[in-house]
Design brief:
Layout (H helix, E strand, L loop, with lengths): L6 E9 L1 H8 L3 H9 L3 E6 L5 E6 L4 E6 L5 E4 L5 E9 L2 E8 L2 E10 L2 E8 L2 E9 L1
Antiparallel strand pairs: 1-2, 1-10, 2-3, 3-4, 5-6, 6-7, 7-8, 8-9, 9-10
Helix pairs in contact: 1-2
Amino acid sequence: MVDQFVGTWKMISSENFDDYMKALGVGFATRQVGNRTKPNFVMSVDDQGTICMKSQSAFKTTEVKFKLNEPFDETTADDRKTRTVVSLDSGKLIQKQSWDGKETSIEREISDGKLVAKCIMGDVVAVRTYVKE
């Protein structure tokens, strides 16, 4: 299942994230904070199979709880209200967010012991890499 993603992950690199935030429509001030922030990503699963994903930083902590393949309402770190569904496909955890007729996806996978998150909006791709703490 999602066991390989469970744990606390510390960000070690972030590439093209400013362009990704621009593609989402994030304002200048929020992008400045977003570019400086290096959040931890924390994932856990409870006995009922409910997954909890947290993004923790000094600036903001966000948390979502969900079951795979079941749509839910999410308020993102940049305050978008999205309809989100998370699925597991070929070892990748794929989070699709839809709002105002737009869609973005975040594909997370484990590669060489690191968690690699690809944030995709149209033809803009940001890559954020984490190591397990």
